[in-house]
Write a structure and sequence with these properties.
about 40% helix; 4-stranded parallel β-sheet; 12 helices; Rossmann fold; 6-stranded mixed β-sheet
């Protein structure tokens, strides 16, 4: 992958992850041929899209001689789980700073799923009522005064360095599709902090490949996410010495399937997870991929894609979060 030859990521992932057809689901929906990119099988701590980003981010941390890793997110963050696992693998202390994403969370939500697993990796967990970015900056300053060298990883691992992991994923998918003798027309995935979409768009544009990338928004507003992802894609392209590569018109965000808010379940998400499970034996998560899948299914039912097109759905992982929602999945 010559585009990324100047970078030296740490290897955490089991790449290439499979790109496989969803034959039964495609037939059931009567729409385009759906393929799934199994980035839920990247191999680090229940796996997911953050592993690819962490290969580049942790390499940067090592290069900067970091002595402790700091990151932030909401409770049940899959990013935080994979960061804790990566730090453990590299024998680096890891501190996670969380804010509760929903009012009156259940004890199950606060003690199971990703939160339970984070403790297994020895991460230090701090909950805050203030802006977690401010809390993390304050913690980093305190650690620096103690002689430590903290390395801050942003929410979702989403900066230009982290997004390189999804430039790599885009190049990987293009090669897989070529090997399987089909052309990808559309890529659909969940978008929240922006790094996955920014990397995919940058990689596809750098390859002059015809696929469009649509991020199904699970937080913020459509306009905010489009601007966030666009700026991040521009920053990523600049790292690759192609600063004018991406245009705002290349960034497609669909915010119709978020529901009432981040982390809040929807009936469509529940039905989508059940449908994929029963037709293809694949589990998705309730916060990100489940809502993105619900959006894809609805768009297919609305004939947004032609029958002869090929759509790749990127499974970004996070399935451990399912265990934090027993009241959603066990009552039906």
């Amino acid at each position: 992958m010559s585009l990324l030859n100047s970078f030296n990521p740490i290897s955490f992932s089991h790449n290439p992850t499979p790109l496989t057809p969803l034959t039964r689901l495609s037939k059931h929906l009567g729409g385009p041929q759906i393929y799934i990119k199994r980035d839920d099988l990247t191999g680090l701590a229940f796996s997911g899209n953050k592993t690819r980003k962490l290969e580049y981010l942790m390499a940067d941390a090592i290069n900067q001689q970091a002595s402790v890793i700091l990151t932030l997110g909401y409770e049940q963050s899959n990013h935080a789980l994979q960061t804790a696992a990566a730090a453990s693998k590299l024998n680096l202390p890891c501190e996670l700073i969380f804010k509760t994403p929903i009012e009156h969370p259940s004890s199950t939500f606060k003690q199971s799923g990703n939160i339970l697993l984070q403790t297994l990796f020895g991460a230090s967990i701090t909950s805050t009522d203030q802006d977690p970015m401010i809390a993390m900056q304050q913690r980093a300053e305190a650690l620096s005064q103690q002689g430590e060298k903290p390395y801050i990883i942003p929410k979702g691992g989403s900066n230009a360095i982290g997004a390189l992991g999804y430039v790599e994923c885009a190049l990987e998918m293009i090669q897989q599709a070529k090997a399987y003798s089909f052309t990808i027309d559309h890529v659909v995935h969940a978008t929240g902090s922006g790094g996955t979409q920014a990397g995919l768009v940058t990689g596809i544009k750098a390859s002059s490949y015809p696929a469009t990338v649509t991020g199904m928004g699970i937080r913020l507003t459509q306009e905010t996410l489009e601007q966030l992802n666009y700026q991040l894609a521009c920053d990523t392209a600049a790292l690759l010495h192609q600063p004018d590569l991406v245009q705002l018109s290349d960034i497609h965000v669909n915010q119709d399937y978020m529901g009432e808010g981040y982390c809040l379940p929807t009936d469509a998400m529940h039905e989508a997870i059940k449908l994929l499970s029963q037709y293809e034996g694949i589990i998705t998560d309730p916060i990100y991929t489940g809502k993105a899948l619900a959006g894809l299914i609805d768009l297919i039912q609305k004939k947004s894609f032609s029958r002869n097109e090929n759509v790749v759905f990127v499974h970004t992982g996070g399935t451990a979060a399912l265990f934090a929602y027993p009241e959603v999945f066990c009552k039906r």
